[in-house]
């Protein structure tokens, strides 16, 4: 019903203002989301930027409570630029000044911005420059004498995971530190996720400081940075317990393991850039060994991969070939009534050409759109004993491991197939993120880089003192 109402309004605008098109898919989705937020009186909304930030369709919120920027890498170069500085400039476009009311000499503070740690120097320089320029451009008159004051845009840098760990040990002792270490190992937190956990904690803290209506947090101190190279601490930190929940946060399709049968395991990661494939490769190296006790010589490893549009698959495949896959399939997307833009269409031919240039002995083949689901169904239906026919020849392995990566859409296709096949098991048999391991045929998840935390107003929420650092813009 909400979709119908929003679409009719969009269509009505097209009829009213001839020549102005109705919003595209992404613009429509965010318009629908904002409409639902208002209609349902949502208290807090976390909005993820679609592409870049400065010119993104989500960047219409003028007065957010906090903005956050994750790690910077060269992606969407045709739209965001071909250098780190250009990408960072687009990302920094979400920095805002928070002006709810200006009466006489009263004005509200700027919106705090927080960025992930270990950003490239070029990116950090751009962030500082843009935070400063936001303050300058928001200069206002605050008195009858026309005295103009710049409104600062405070810029924070999230802590390192190791700093959090050290603080836990310092405040809680060896026993607490060991429990935390056990928790990290149990949850299987990859290094890339550690950085985003820190960013999530810092963003949550900055938001919480402006939300007196929710349960209070213990005192929180920051580290100021006079310049990018150096830093100094201000005051002592309060002892704050680390929320185990943030280590259990999951997003489907990122560092995810699906035990299809006792003998067939899928490893899915929606990485689609060289940097993210690097993290995916490291994760798969560990996760594949932990998933089975079967010797490697009795395991068939299969890579199911594709890229979309004009992405260069060569550097990604070069990183993945170290896993010595027994078979490689470059896939299309399963059949759909949706019409995809060129930038979202699979390019299996480019993947095959790049793989051939690597000179590896592992055979590779292309799967058409119509062949994707039957291929997955063949693996799902393998009984664990009979001879399996693959493009590497006939084999009788003890186990099969399939890595699916390179495209968010490909991972989505595979997961949607699993859901359609296992739907008769009932939703209760598909565990939510953080639940215990499920039996064969049930979807489970490892850890993802983005973190979502539910706020419960009934009890105080405690989070580790994240040693957030304030970048001085002066």
Query: How big a fraction of the residues is strand?
Result: 5-15%
Strand order of the largest sheet: 12-11-10-15-9-8-16
Which regions are unreliable across 5 or more consecutive residues at pLDDT < 50? 99-108, 138-149, 216-241, 424-474
Summed over residues and divided by their number, the pLDDT gives a mean of: 70
Q: Radius of gyration, Cα only, in angstroms?
A: 25 Å
Question: Would you report the number of β strands?
Answer: 17
Q: Tell me the count of domains.
A: 3
Bin the helical content: 25-40%
User: What's the shape?
Assistant: globular
User: Helices and strands: which structural class?
Assistant: alpha/beta
Helix tally equals 13
Order of helices and strands: HHEHHEHEEEHHEEHEEHEHEHEHEEEHEE
Distance between the termini: 50 Å
Task: Give the oligomer, counting copies of the same chain as homo and different chains as hetero.
Answer: single chain
Main sheet: strands, sense, barrel: 7 strands, mixed
What does this protein look like?
Helix 1 (2-16) crosses helix 2 and helix 4 packs parallel to helix 5. The protein has a 7-stranded mixed beta sheet, sandwiched between helices. Strands 1-2-5-17-6-7 form a 6-stranded mixed beta sheet, sandwiched between helices. Strands 3-4 form a two-stranded antiparallel sheet. Helix content is 36%, strand content 13%. The protein has 3 domains: 1-42, no CATH class; 50-244 and 466-471, no CATH class; 256-443, Mur ligase, C-terminal domain (Protein-Tyrosine Phosphatase, Chain A), CATH 3.90.190. With 474 residues, the chain is an alpha/beta fold. The protein has helices at 2-16, 25-39, 77-80, 84-91, 121-137, 161-187, 191-208, 245-248, 274-290, 314-320, 348-358, 369-380, 408-422, and strands spanning 67-69, 113-115, 140-141, 148-149, 155-157, 223-225, 232-233, 256-259, 264-268, 299-305, 327-331, 364-367, 388-390, 393-395, 399-405, 442-443, 469-471. Residues 99-108, 138-149, 216-241 and 424-474 have low confidence and may be disordered. The longest helix has 27 residues, at 161-187. It has 13 helices and 17 strands. The termini are far apart.
């Amino acid at each position: 019903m909400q979709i119908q109402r929003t679409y009719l309004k969009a269509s009505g605008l097209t009829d009213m203002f001839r020549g102005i098109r109705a919003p595209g898919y992404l613009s429509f989705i965010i318009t629908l989301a904002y409409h639902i937020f208002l209609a349902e009186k949502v208290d807090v909304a976390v909005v993820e930027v679609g592409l870049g930030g400065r010119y993104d369709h989500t960047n219409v919120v003028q007065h957010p409570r906090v903005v956050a920027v994750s790690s910077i890498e060269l992606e969407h170069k045709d739209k965001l630029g071909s250098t780190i500085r250009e990408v960072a400039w687009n990302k920094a476009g979400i920095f805002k000044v928070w002006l709810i009311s200006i009466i006489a000499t009263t004005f509200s503070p700027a919106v705090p911005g927080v960025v992930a740690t270990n950003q490239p120097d070029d990116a950090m320089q751009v962030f500082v420059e843009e935070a400063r320029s936001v303050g300058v451009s928001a200069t206002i008159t605050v008195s009858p004498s026309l005295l103009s004051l710049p409104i600062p845009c405070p810029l924070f840098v999230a802590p390192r995971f190791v700093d959090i760990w050290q603080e836990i040990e310092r405040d809680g002792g060896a026993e607490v530190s060991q429990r935390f270490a056990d928790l990290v190992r149990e949850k299987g937190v990859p290094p890339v996720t550690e950085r985003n956990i820190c960013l999530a904690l810092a963003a949550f803290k900055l938001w919480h400081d402006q939300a007196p209506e929710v349960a209070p947090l213990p005192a929180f101190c920051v580290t100021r940075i006079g310049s990018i190279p150096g830093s100094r601490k201000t005051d002592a930190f309060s002892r704050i317990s680390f929320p185990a929940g943030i280590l259990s946060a999951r997003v489907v399709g990122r560092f995810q393991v699906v035990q299809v049968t006792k003998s067939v395991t899928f490893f899915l990661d929606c990485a689609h850039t060289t940097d993210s494939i690097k993290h995916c490769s490291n994760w798969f190296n560990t996760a594949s060994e932990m998933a089975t006790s079967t010797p490697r010589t009795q395991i068939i490893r299969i890579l199911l991969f594709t890229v979309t549009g004009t992405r260069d698959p060569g550097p990604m495949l070069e990183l993945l070939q170290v896993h010595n896959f027994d078979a490689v399939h470059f896939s299309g997307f399963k059949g759909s009534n949706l019409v995809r833009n060129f930038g979202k269409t699979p390019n299996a031919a480019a993947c095959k050409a790049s793989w051939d240039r690597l000179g590896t002995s592992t055979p590779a083949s292309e799967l058409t759109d119509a062949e994707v689901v039957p291929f997955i169904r063949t693996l799902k239906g393998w009984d664990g004993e009979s001879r399996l026919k693959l493009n590497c020849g006939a084999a009788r392995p003890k186990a099969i491991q399939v890595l699916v990566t390179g495209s968010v859409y490909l991972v989505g296709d595979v997961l949607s197939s699993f859901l359609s096949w296992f739907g008769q098991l009932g939703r209760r048999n598909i565990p939510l993120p953080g639940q215990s391991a499920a039996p064969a045929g049930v979807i489970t998840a490892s850890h993802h880089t983005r973190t979502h935390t539910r706020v419960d107003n009934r009890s105080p929420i405690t989070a580790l003192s994240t040693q957030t650092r304030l970048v001085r813009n002066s």
